[in-house]
Design goal:
Strand order of the largest sheet: 4-5-3-2-1-6
Shape: globular
Low-confidence stretches: 5-22
Distance between the termini: 22 Å
Mean pLDDT: 83
Largest sheet: 6 strands, antiparallel
Region (Disordered): 1-23
Number of strands: 8
Strand content: 15-25%
Number of domains: 1
Radius of gyration: 17 Å
Length: 257
């Protein structure tokens, strides 16, 4: 899961406006320190900012994905409890929907795979500060890959792309066969047993993400993405469109919003 493989992706605006403190002004501040961002300002990284909304409460969150197999999830609790795996599953479903819309969107691909990986492994460390709860995931410290598709997807961009194309035409038998072939190829590359989605899996981004992460869909719990920020030097064939993008200085880096 390296951002140097990823390409441009910007999520749509949420259906309801985010409050001002839910944007980069809430999180990308000098007093917010992120443990996974190293000293190399050229290393690509991305942030997703938004809210997890449930039962009338809104938990403001920041998701940071680095280029070297690290992810940090910060949430300011409004509902009084945190369910990290469910939150990450909602974010993964959002990214997968964007990937279905554009299967070539490599950044959406990478965020989806990173969120699936974090939702199916244990954090390397957690901490709390007041209402803020932080979970840090490090690929070098994580457990062995989980079995089945959740263990194959994080390391295989082509498999995630084939999944998105299949979900774009779930009744297309040819697309299903291509997805099955992509699973077999990914398993061969990883030296692991092949796997399949179960017959009961609902073939939508939310349904597939729920099956991959083992979480039950909850219609009352949603993720509202308020913005995306990227930083670092990106390869020419995968660079986000930063022309005219406003910037904010955070962690010694210029983040493009």
């Amino acid at each position: 899961m390296r951002f140097r493989e990823y390409a441009s992706y910007r999520p749509p605006q949420p259906p309801t406006p985010a409050r001002p403190h839910d944007t980069h002004h809430r999180w990308l501040r000098d007093d917010i320190a992120c443990d996974i961002l190293g000293d190399d300002p050229a290393a690509p990284a991305a942030c997703l900012l938004g809210e997890i909304r449930t039962a009338g409460f809104a938990d403001t969150f920041l998701l940071v994905v680095a280029d070297d197999g690290k992810l940090e999830y910060r949430v300011e609790r409004g509902a009084g409890s945190v369910e990290v795996d469910r939150d990450l599953a909602l974010i993964a479903a959002h990214a997968l929907q964007r990937l279905v819309d554009d299967p070539a969107a490599r950044l959406a691909n990478g965020i989806f795979r990173a969120a699936i990986w974090a939702a199916t492994t244990s954090p390397a460390r957690t901490q709390t500060s007041g209402l803020e709860w932080i979970a840090t995931f490090d690929q070098t410290d994580s457990h062995f890959a989980v079995p089945g598709l959740p263990g194959l997807l994080p390391g295989d961009r082509r498999l995630a792309r084939a999944l998105a194309r299949m979900l774009g035409s779930p009744a297309d038998l040819a697309a299903q066969r291509r997805f099955d072939a992509a699973i077999d190829a990914a398993a061969l590359r990883a030296g692991r047993p092949t796997a399949r989605l179960t017959a009961t899996t609902v073939l939508t981004p939310a349904g597939v993400t729920a099956a991959l992460t083992g979480t039950d869909p909850d219609p009352s719990r949603t993720a509202a993405i308020a913005g995306l920020a990227v930083t670092g030097d990106w390869p020419p064939d995968g660079a986000p469109d930063l022309l005219m993008a406003p910037t904010v200085r955070w962690h010694g880096r210029d983040w493009h919003l």
